[in-house]
Design goal:
Number of helices: 5
CATH class: Alpha Beta
Shape: globular
Structural class: alpha+beta
Strand order of the largest sheet: 1-2
Distance between the termini: 23 Å
Radius of gyration: 15 Å
Strand content: 5-15%
Order of helices and strands: EEHEHHHEH
CATH superfamily: P-loop containing nucleotide triphosphate hydrolases
CATH architecture: 3-Layer(aba) Sandwich
Length: 133
């Protein structure tokens, strides 16, 4: 309901002081989302997906932040998305969900397919983001 994928059958849903679904567009600008089943266009290179994410959010690319996230999660930007393993697809989705600095991050099975090292890095990053507010 928060992402407006399903409609409430009753009551009200509000996020960031805006009632849904009328505040849908404004609210989604402040949300990062990683689905359990990550699907992007398989023929696109990871670096293109990252660039499109910036374009989608109408923000200038923050190379330093992207480099940090890609290095942290060992994302191979030159590969085609369709050639990646489940875990690597998940890592790309995590990077894309965070590069616009969302106020809320919704993660559906974020560690599915991640090796233990990446799992630990993800949760360390989540704790760091939580401390930052």
């Amino acid at each position: 309901m928060l992402l407006n994928f399903i409609k409430p059958s009753g009551g009200k849903v509000a996020l960031f002081g805006r009632e849904m679904p009328s505040g849908n567009v404004a609210v989604k600008k402040n949300i990062g989302y990683v689905p359990s089943d990550v699907r992007f266009y398989p023929q696109l290179h990871v670096e293109d997906l990252i660039r499109y994410t910036f374009d989608f959010h109408h923000i200038k690319e923050d190379k330093k932040e992207v480099d940090k996230l890609c290095e942290m999660f060992q994302v191979e930007r030159k590969k085609k998305f369709g050639d990646l393993s489940l875990g690597n697809k998940k890592k790309v989705a995590i990077v894309c969900s965070m590069i616009h600095q969302p106020e809320l991050l919704i993660l559906d099975e974020p560690t599915n397919g991640l090796d233990p090292l990446m799992h630990a890095r993800l949760f360390r990053l989540m704790k760091e983001k939580q401390r930052q507010g």
